[in-house]
Specification:
heterodimer, A: 5-stranded parallel β-sheet, 11 helices, globular, B: 315 residues, alpha/beta, Rossmann fold, 7-stranded mixed β-sheet
């Protein structure tokens, strides 16, 4: 990585790039491509970088009931980076929030699964897509949990391009002011935004220092290594005393992870023209 | 009007534990009593309107009813996307209390003069838009906000505005109020007004009536949803319709009335004139009254405009 400030991270970025995916991760990616093939379009790269983050949250951490999506005591998860919604849809369908067949109608006229998530989808907490909104909504939810004496936790997943938005930092300052230890900001740090490398378009380094200086307790990890994700989420949750600091977890990821032709390829940020060759590459990478 | 609206937030907080106040860097000790009584439901946040709206949305998603207060231009222009997406798309019961509607902040210049707030708020699906005429009517509006299931924009006047509303006329969100008892049938001029412009138009109507001109005045404290039925019915019985607002002529009450008439009437519309702020930023400071006179939306100017229009109609 050409930006020297990245050397301050402990995570070995080569290992992130080379991280093998297990069958569950490949299964979730197959669900994503099921939706893309039927919908004819989708934000591919941004969804593939955050599959393991959402998977680990739903499989191991979030208190939730798929049959009762509005269960009051649930933990809240906001995909602030709404364009990564295909990964969320895959996980929600896989966990039974709605039938998997709904994925076949992604972006269809009468589908509830659109190109950005809305609350009509069972399990989706907030309509997102316009960037820089989720952390403020999440801190409002975290304050609401405090006001009502619930111990629900709130997780907000943001993109590394999304955090260019000034509103993210308004929210960060506010979360620190209120000492929202029940709020965790997660950064999907795949290092490529729509127009190109984040270091060329809008470098946010030193990123960990920024979140630390805004009052967050910061960890980092390989965002495709499910064991490491479990460890950092467990540590973040375990350390949470009521008036402690909010958490930020920087997940080093690979845009397009799991499909070699899509990896680190800005051309796969959004696709509406998948060729037979592309589909063959996808099937070759994921199996069928 | 401002003090009354905030006092009412405190009163509503006493009545209903869902009520939360969120201010964005307002006066020291604002709602200090509420802060003492309900510290958990009182938030004075920084100068970060986008965050404040998202925060209010998050609370409303969890069942709270946040009343958010700051200067009208900042709570509309600055965070428009948050209002549109976080509040309106989710159709949440958040109340936006905007200080200084129209030219209240005349001396502070165009950055603080809310001249298009009604237009841009009105354009958002699910948003309710209100501009009451005095403090007493503010009390009735605030009472009605508690159980209104949609986001509401509450435009504030200067404060100390003359009280012209009467409780016996009732109050319901979306229902215009007849301000002149005697004139509910045919009229020479029908005024449709909102906010403190209602006071100016009512004074003009008094002077016109003294000259035998039959005036009717429908006060639309709610610009959205507009009381289209009442306005269309009254308009079809009037020789002239005049809308008056302390707001740009682009997109405000006058536009809403024209839309309602156009949607309801097949054939020629009644003669109509929109009085408001021309499509420009103010080049002057001074007082609210001086700027209203400059735009010819003070009582005397309204009266002479109506006389002139009626004379032209007679030709």
């Amino acid at each position: 990585m050409k930006n020297g400030t990245l050397l301050s991270y402990d995570t070995d970025l080569d290992s992130v790039q080379l991280q093998p995916l297990d069958e569950r991760s490949r299964h979730l990616r197959r669900l994503i491509f099921r939706a893309i093939e039927n919908g004819g379009r989708g934000h591919i790269g941004p969804a593939l970088s955050l599959v393991e983050i959402i998977r680990v949250l739903y499989d191991d951490f979030l208190r939730h009931k798929p049959a009762d999506p509005l269960w009051r005591e649930r933990d809240r998860f906001i995909l602030s980076k709404g364009h990564g919604c295909l990964a969320l849809y895959a996980v929600l369908a896989d966990r039974g929030f709605f039938p998997i067949e709904e994925l076949d109608r992604f972006c269809h006229f009468d589908s509830f699964l659109g190109g950005h998530p809305e609350t009509v989808v069972p399990g989706v907490e907030a309509c997102t897509g316009a960037l820089g909104h989720g952390l403020s909504i999440g801190l409002g939810m975290a304050l609401a949990a405090r006001m009502t004496g619930r111990d629900s936790k709130v997780y907000v997943l943001m993109g590394d391009g999304e955090i260019n938005e000034g509103s993210v930092w308004e929210a960060a300052a506010c979360a620190d002011k209120h000492r929202l230890s029940n709020l965790t900001a997660i950064i999907d740090y795949n290092k490529i935004q729509s127009a190109g490398s984040v270091f060329e378009i809008q470098n946010m380094e030193p990123l960990a220092d920024k979140w630390t200086s805004f009052g967050f307790r910061v960890s980092e990890c390989n965002g495709h290594d499910v064991d490491e994700l479990r460890r950092v989420f467990r540590e973040a949750a375990a350390a949470a005393a009521p008036s402690d600091r909010p958490r930020a977890i920087i997940c080093h990821t690979v845009k397009g992870k799991g499909i070699p032709v899509a990896e680190n390829n800005p051309g796969w940020h959004h696709k509406s023209d998948l060729s037979e060759k592309d589909l063959l590459a996808i099937r070759g990478a994921l199996g069928s | 009007m401002r003090k009354r609206s905030l006092d009412m937030v405190h009163a509503l907080a006493r009545r209903d534990e869902r009520v939360v106040f969120i201010g964005s860097d307002l006066s020291p000790n604002l709602l200090g009593e509420m802060k003492k009584e309900y510290p958990q439901r009182y938030y004075m946040e920084g100068i970060a309107e986008a965050n404040v709206i998202g925060m209010a949305a998050g609370m409303a998603m969890e069942g709270f009813i946040p009343y958010v207060n700051t200067i009208a231009t900042f709570i509309t222009r600055r965070c428009y996307e948050q209002v549109a997406v976080d509040l309106c798309l989710h159709d949440l019961p958040v109340r936006l209390i905007g200080n200084g509607g129209g030219y209240v902040y005349a001396p502070l210049g165009p950055t603080h003069q809310a001249i298009e707030d009604i237009a841009i708020m009105r354009a958002l699906p699910h948003m309710t838009v209100t501009a009451v005429c005095d403090a007493e009517e503010m009390t009735r509006l605030m009472d009605a906000t508690l159980d209104w299931p949609h986001p509401i924009y509450i435009r504030l006047g200067k404060g100390g505005d003359p009280v012209i509303s009467k409780s016996e006329r009732g109050f319901a969100i979306g229902k215009a109020i007849d301000m002149i008892e005697a004139e509910q049938g045919a009229s020479d001029v029908l005024f449709v007004t909102t906010g403190v412009a209602t006071t100016q138009a009512l004074m003009a109507a008094g002077a016109l009536a003294a000259d035998g001109i039959r005036c009717r005045l429908l006060h639309a404290h709610t610009i959205k949803p507009l009381d289209a039925d009442a306005i269309v019915d009254a308009a079809t019985k009037a020789r002239l319709v005049v809308t008056v607002e302390e707001h740009s002529v682009v997109g405000g009450l006058g536009s809403a009335v024209l839309e309602a008439l156009s949607d309801a009437i097949v054939g020629p519309l009644p003669p109509l004139r929109r009085l408001g702020i021309p499509d420009r930023f103010s080049a002057h400071y001074g007082s609210q009254q001086a700027l209203m006179e400059d735009c010819k939306i003070d009582a005397a100017s309204i009266g002479s405009t109506v006389r002139s229009l009626l004379a032209r109609l007679r030709q």
